[in-house]
Each structure stands twice: as C-alpha cells, then as structure tokens.
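Format is chain and fold; as here:
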Amino acid sequence: MGELTVISFDMTHGLGTDGTIAVERVAHLVAEAGADLAGLQEIDRFWPRSYFENQAAVLGRLLGMHHLFAPITPLGGPGRGLAILSRHPVLHHTWHRTAEGPPCFVLQRAAIGCAGARVTCLNTNPGNSPAVWRKIQGICRDLHTPALLTGGAAAEGFAEVMRAIGWRPAVPDEEPVRRPLRDARPQGAVFFSPHWRMQRVRLFRPAWAVTRPLAATAALASPAGATPKPGAFPAAGPRP
C-alpha cells in the first residue's frame, strides 16, 4: 500500500535563534526529511514582521509543492496562519475555527490523492484548552478515510485525547545515552488514524530552530475505499 512521509513544524514565521527570518532554512528541512506532506504552524502571509512575504507560496515554489494557507487572524486576511504543503494532488481544502480568539484556534483540512486513496490531512496548533481538544477529537472520530494530523507542540493531554479514539502519535526512538541530553525546545507532533502502519520517526535538531521539526513515515495498512459518513464534517470555513 502507499507510503507517506509527513513533517510537522512550528516554524515561528521563519525566525531562528540567531534573530534571522529565513524560510529557505525551513525549505531545506522539508527537503532533507524527504517529506511528501508538511504541516506548518505559525506561518505568515503579507505580515510586517516577516517583510510582507507570502511564506507558504515561497516554500511551495522552493520545494515544487502545492501550498495551502489557512489564516488564524479573526478576519481571515493577511497575518498569521497554518499551511499544508503537498507533493500529491490536492482534491479539497478548507478550515474550521475550533475556538474564537484571541487567540484564535483553527483546524486546517485538505484531501489529497495518495496511492489511489483519498487521504485527509489535518493541521492545527491545539493550544492547551481541553474544549478545543475535544472539538478536534470529535472531527477526527467521524473521519472514515485514512487521515493524519500535524500540530504544534502538543501537550501530553492532547496526545491522550487522540489515543482515546485510536489515533497513534508518532514518537521518535529514544536517543542513545551517548548523545547530548535533550533540550527543552517544543517539538512538532504527528498523529495517524488506525488506517496506517508506522514505519519510522525522526526528530530534527537544527541549531537555528526555535522548535524541533518531527517527521514520520507511515504506510496504508487497510483498504483505502472507505468514505466519510454523510454529514461527518462540520460546515466548511471560507475558501482561501
């Protein structure tokens, strides 16, 4: 069955520990991971702090990937948001507000065609609100296609909420003791629906990154023909 490599990264609008904003470094990470799909959080579009750059479009161009942006600003215009990058064809894209702000919380959703299957890709920054976690859990529980979710540094409580519906978190192997101790920087999170069989997980540690990207590879382990039940999804958000 089809294999998919996905990377999750809270990219802090490209800002590094050296004070430089450079989305080219993010593009290099995605390429190094061999990612077919990237779920990016804290990405900017036409925002002063990042020099009015459309960062998702720039990354898409550098990587040769489809780029999808979902704003988390209240009016949905320029500003901060989420992005999905995909090497596979994009069949559908929308987003839903999971909590009104400030801060606003958004669940981005895209359908891609992968190995003859329709795969649902979700991307979010879930924060620390159990109410938001439960809303995301409800949406994921009602999905009947192979699906995955990328997110910013997810609290352990959120991981437990996802495990409760059978979604597996991608957990990197324990590092050998000879390596330096882990630092406290938050890391990305990837969750797979029960349709997947985990293959490998890698945690990246670029010196410049404020957070740690997480990449995971999984293979489809069940038939891809399942379709969502009618009315399984909430009302769609605005189209980009």
Notes: The first helix runs from residue 23 to 33. The chain has one domain: 3-168+185-220.
